[in-house]
Design goal:
heterodimer; A: about 200 residues; alpha+beta; Ubiquitin Conjugating Enzyme; four-stranded antiparallel β-sheet; elongated; B: about 190 residues; mainly alpha; Herpes Virus-1; 4 helices; about 30% helix; about 5% strand; disordered N terminus; binds zinc ion; UBA (chain A); EC 2.3.2.23 (chain A); E2 ubiquitin-conjugating enzyme (chain A); ubiquitin conjugating enzyme activity (chain A)
Amino acid sequence: MANIAVARIKREFKEVVKSEEVAKCHIKVELVDDSFTSLRGEILGPPDTPYEGGTFILDIRIPETYPFNPPKVQFLTKIWHPNISSVTGAICLDILKDQWAAAMTLRTVLLSLQALLAAPEPDDPQDAVVARQYKETSDIFSQTARHWASNYASAPHREPVMDDKVAQLKNMGFDEHKARVALSTHNWDIEQAMENILS
Amino acid sequence: MSATDSTAGASGSGGSTQGASGSSGDAPEQPDTSTYECNICLDTARDAVISHCGHLFCWPCLHQWLETRPNRQVCPVCKAGISKDKVIPLYGRGSTDQKDPRDKVPPRPQGLRTEPENNANFPGFGFGEGGFQFGIGAFPFGFFATTFNFNNGRPPPPGPGTQQHGEEQFLSKVFLWVAMMCVVWLLIS
Ligand SMILES: [Zn+2]
Ligand SMILES: [Zn+2]
């Protein structure tokens, strides 16, 4: 039995490859191996967001039942966003779950994720800590998200104050990523962050 | 319009999908072969069926989609309600369809054949979804229509002399009689 999933991915590949967004470098899909079941996606952080100019890499797994069931997608690039786990990169997005429809394609998925970066849904969070920060202190959220994007997704806009705080903890011998998570979680209060790491 | 383009931007839980529809006209080359592509496998539709919302699929593809989500049967493109009974098979010239499509697995739903005349004669007599409705006033007429419909419908009427023919004639006489009684009763009351 020829696998419909593979046949479809091959067709979609051509579609995405020749689409406008690719020409503008906004989205991209690549094969990981010859199986067409494991793919690598790439989206550009949308303008006027903390993710602007960052390159976010996605792990895409095509189930055997594709396109009747959605692809399994998660962020490989670390990101600070209410609907994406800052730990695992798992995504909370309706179309990747019960709102999936068989006519959707990798292209729609990548564009939807790009739209999600531009418009978070804090009321249906994946990462509760980030969601709370987004709702309660949106300034700190934006700066934190920008700080993560510049450090992990090569986004051009840096947050020097935050970079300094991470560097301080790093110089004290803490792991850089752990320090960043602790600081981000505790609204950049160094003492609270240290307590958190040591506890 | 590329047929492969899903604009099904489901709002609702889990994050916004607006903007996901993107620009749909971005495949300018190739004179529209994509118009006849199945919205699920993206290949030329085989055993094609079309939904009431106008979206084209291979019947096997759509069938599998409906089987995958028995509790949430929506059009894979626009998310309008959809079901096995609400798709129309397309018969192109030279399509394989001289064979009975039901021989295939899964069977493709049959085309809907309505009789053109009956529709006009009795306004207020709904053909649509299989539920007959008639108002009080039109009641007897509605009744007539259903009895006549027996003979006008799909299965060709059995030839005269057969037992079934006799039964049907008897039945329609009974109906006619009942209807008359109704009229009389209406007049008296
Ligand atoms: Zn198909
Ligand atoms: Zn539709």
